[in-house]
Write a structure and sequence with these properties.
The complex is a heterodimer. Chain A is α/β, with parallel strands linked by helices. Chain A has helices spanning 40-47, 69-74, 91-103, 109-118, 135-149, 165-180, 192-198, 221-233, and strands spanning 2-11, 14-24, 29-34, 55-60, 63-64, 76-79, 153-157, 184-189, 201-206, 209-215. In chain A, helix 3 (91-103) crosses helix 4 (109-118), helix 3 (91-103) packs parallel to helix 5 and helix 4 (109-118) packs across helix 5. Chain B is mostly helical. The chains are: A alpha/beta, B mainly alpha. The A-B interface holds A 45, 48, 50-51, 69-71, 73-74, 76-78, 80, 82-86, 88-89, 93, 97-98, 100-102, 104, 106, 142, 145, 149, 155 and B 1, 4-5, 8, 11-12, 15-16, 154-156, 158-166, 462, 464.
């Protein structure tokens, strides 16, 4: 569903991605690990067509991202590290707006409340202005937007960063649920524990290269940590 | 999709207070300007029609007197206020409204309202046109400068683009929101006042005013639309909202406050007008020269009012003398007015960089308060003056005393005064105004298209950099 084929991205003299290839199948949760500046977010931006690759290609559902950006975005939902919403609108109004743009129709209020509830936002907070929300609550509105879109692929850029452990766990459960529904999930993270616990496949990036790829079930928490540190120190 | 974006933007603007405060202030000013303009127009029209009726009545009832004495006294005619002068007083406050139709000489239009105003008049009159030309663009800038840059700074642009929102929908949505905000303030007041104004007019004048209002709406629509798309373009092109605000405010100050004054000074250098003293001297010299030639040709006299000319010929001499002056008057006033019109046309080119200059000319023209329509009135007044001179001179010729002894004792009566028709001035039609200002409208249309193209280009570039 999500395919990066020999992707290189150069920013002037700096090579942010170096011949990276990976694919995420429907129902898979692919966790991309790596230090800051390893190229994880650059890869996400390339899938979103916010950047164009210097060489190589990216596909979502076999459709080229650069040549058909609008079509590929229809298959995709994206949750960034900081879900940014309109502060003067309520969570429900934000969801109504973004979901209308995503699916081309305005969902009725009960359905919007249902989506927010499914994302874990307390019902009584739905009509409060987003300016009063915590980061976790905003993240949940972001998830509700993704749920409303009913996307075939999910792109997440460090989605649990800054969330409290309980909110991070709830988030992981939602990802598992989405993958069980056949959604392909690509998430970048620094959180080795949640990556091992939630991911079906893990990739480690360093200096723009994908230096390790492994199945989550083939590695223990301790082994993953050791492997990660080995790559970071080498 | 653009309607969803527009609705969200409007809701945001309504809640963040900018539209409420800035728009509310403009709405209050608009209502005050309309009320003040209406009050002024009703007062002026009442005063002028009463003045004209009284003056004509005094002409009719001046009793028995020498016709040339009556011509020397003459009468006053008053320029009617065009109905849309309420909206845009144009040059009205600066050029006067009353002409003295005296013997021998064409008078300038006098009694300029600006003469009676305080120094604050120099800051410009608070008219609905001024508000739409100067303050509404500022409102558009204030509510729209962060339309795109703010989305980028908050990170919501990333969210929007990740959903596959096309740049065109974003552009149209944002433009519709800004235009709707301005429209919500202007349209109800504009439509309401237009309906009120048209309903109070005589049936025969309504259609012309409706056409004028429609053309004005088109011109102002292009002008404000230009600011909408320019604001969006700058907001999308620059990296921060602060930079967008600084650039847009800089453009607003330069284009709406500085450029018109600079343009006015520049065209004065390009097409200089004579001082009043120089103009009067030149005119007197030309009239005297033309009269001397005419006196020599018709009567063999060496000077005007040569004592050798028998008094029995003085009626004919008055007619010849007046007619001789007509050419000099036409040439001098025509030359001066042509210079004013050349200045106006030259200023319109400044509209390329300062759209308000193009709009100002168009607005005054369609409101009936520009120079070309003032010239039309002045010409009509001068035609009436010549009609009076010709009537009284013909009467003197008809009653010429062969011996001349009774020339100064001859007195005409009410029949002669009644043969001078009352002055009735018909304001030029909308086609007259369009013929003079289509260039400004075309320029506004071109600038509007350029602003749309610039906004389209700005939003077609990669927005996430």
């Amino acid at each position: 569903m999500l395919d990066a084929i020999a992707v290189t991205k150069q920013f002037g003299a700096k090579r942010a991605l170096d011949n990276v290839s990976l694919n995420v199948l429907p129902g898979e949760i692919y966790c991309l690990l790596g230090a800051n500046g390893a190229g994880k977010t650059t890869l996400v931006n390339l899938f979103l067509n916010f950047l164009q690759p210097t060489s190589g290609s990216l596909q979502i559902g076999m459709i080229d991202v650069v040549r058909h950006p609008l079509e590929t975005k229809r298959l995709l939902a994206y949750i960034p590290e900081q879900v940014t919403l309109y502060g003067v609108l309520s969570g429900l109004e934000n969801l109504a707006f973004f979901s209308s743009l995503a699916i081309g129709e305005r969902l009725p209020r009960p359905r919007l409340l249902e989506l927010l509830e499914a994302a874990g936002l307390p019902r009584q907070a739905a009509d409060d202005r987003v300016a009063t929300y915590s980061k976790g609550m905003r993240q949940k509105v972001g998830i509700a937007i993704a749920l409303a879109k009913n996307a075939k692929a999910l792109l997440l850029d460090e989605p649990t960063s800054g969330l409290d452990p309980s909110a991070a766990n709830e988030f992981s459960e939602l990802l598992v649920k989405a993958s069980n529904d056949g959604v392909a999930v690509l998430t970048t993270t620094h959180d080795l524990f949640h990556a091992k616990q939630t991911g079906t496949r893990l990739g480690i990036m360093k200096h723009g290269r994908l230096v390790e790829e492994l199945r989550s079930e083939d590695v223990s928490h301790a082994d993953l940590e050791a492997l990660y540190l080995k790559h970071m120190k080498s | 999709m653009f309607a969803i974006i527009a609705a969200k933007d409007m809701r945001e603007l309504a809640r963040d207070g900018r539209l409420l405060w800035a728009g509310g202030l403009i709405l209050v000013l608009l209502l005050v300007a309309l009320a003040a303009g209406w009050n002024r127009q009703v007062q002026l029209n009442n005063e002028r029609s009463a003045g004209q009726a009284l003056d004509y009545d005094a002409w009719l009832h001046q009793g028995y007197r020498h016709p040339h004495d009556a011509a020397e006294q003459g009468m006053h005619v008053f320029k009617p206020e065009p109905p849309l002068g309420v909206f845009d007083p144009g040059i009205g406050p600066f050029v006067g409204s009353t002409v003295w139709l005296q013997a021998h000489r064409q008078s300038e239009v006098k009694f300029r309202p600006a003469q009676d105003a305080t120094g604050l008049q120099r800051f410009g009159e608070l008219s609905p046109a001024w508000l739409l030309q100067v303050l509404v663009p500022l409102l558009i800038i204030v509510i729209g400068f962060n339309s795109m840059s703010g989305e980028r700074e908050r990170g919501t642009l990333r969210q929007l683009l990740s959903l596959g929102v096309p740049a065109r929908s974003l552009l149209l949505g944002k433009a519709a929101a800004l235009a709707s905000c301005a429209g919500v303030l202007i349209a109800p007041v504009g439509v309401g006042f237009a309906a009120f104004l048209v309903a109070r007019l005589p049936a025969g004048e309504r259609l012309d005013v409706v056409y004028r209002i429609s053309w004005l709406a088109a011109g102002y629509g292009l002008y404000l639309g230009l600011f909408v798309f320019l604001t969006l373009a700058v907001s999308a092109l620059v990296r921060s909202s602060r930079a967008a605000l600084v650039i847009l405010l800089g453009f607003w100050v330069a284009a709406t406050l500085i450029a018109p004054r600079t343009a006015s000074e520049a065209v004065n250098l390009l097409y200089p007008t004579p001082s009043r003293l120089a103009f009067d001297d030149h005119l007197s010299h030309d009239i005297a020269g033309a009269a001397s030639k005419a006196w020599a040709a018709h009567f063999g006299a060496r000077t005007q009012w040569d004592p050798s000319l028998p008094l029995s010929k003085w009626g004919a001499a008055l007619k010849v003398d007046d007619a001789a002056g007509y050419g000099a008057l036409d040439e001098n006033f025509g030359g001066l007015w042509d210079t004013f019109e050349r200045q106006q046309r030259a200023q319109e080119w400044v509209g390329l960089v300062a759209p308000v200059v193009a709009l100002r000319g168009f607005s005054m023209g369609l409101a009936g308060t520009d120079f070309s329509q003032h010239r039309d009135f002045s010409t009509a007044a001068e035609t009436q003056r010549r009609k009076i001179q010709d009537i009284v001179s013909e009467d003197l010729i008809k009653h010429a005393d062969p011996l001349g002894n009774a020339h100064f004792t001859y007195k005409a009566g009410p029949e002669l005064w009644a043969s001078v028709p009352p002055f009735k001035y018909q304001l030029p039609s909308v086609s007259f105004a369009l013929a003079h200002h289509w260039g400004s409208l075309a320029l506004l249309a071109v600038l509007f298209c350029l602003s749309v193209a610039l906004a389209h280009y700005a939003l077609s570039r990669p927005l996430m950099r």
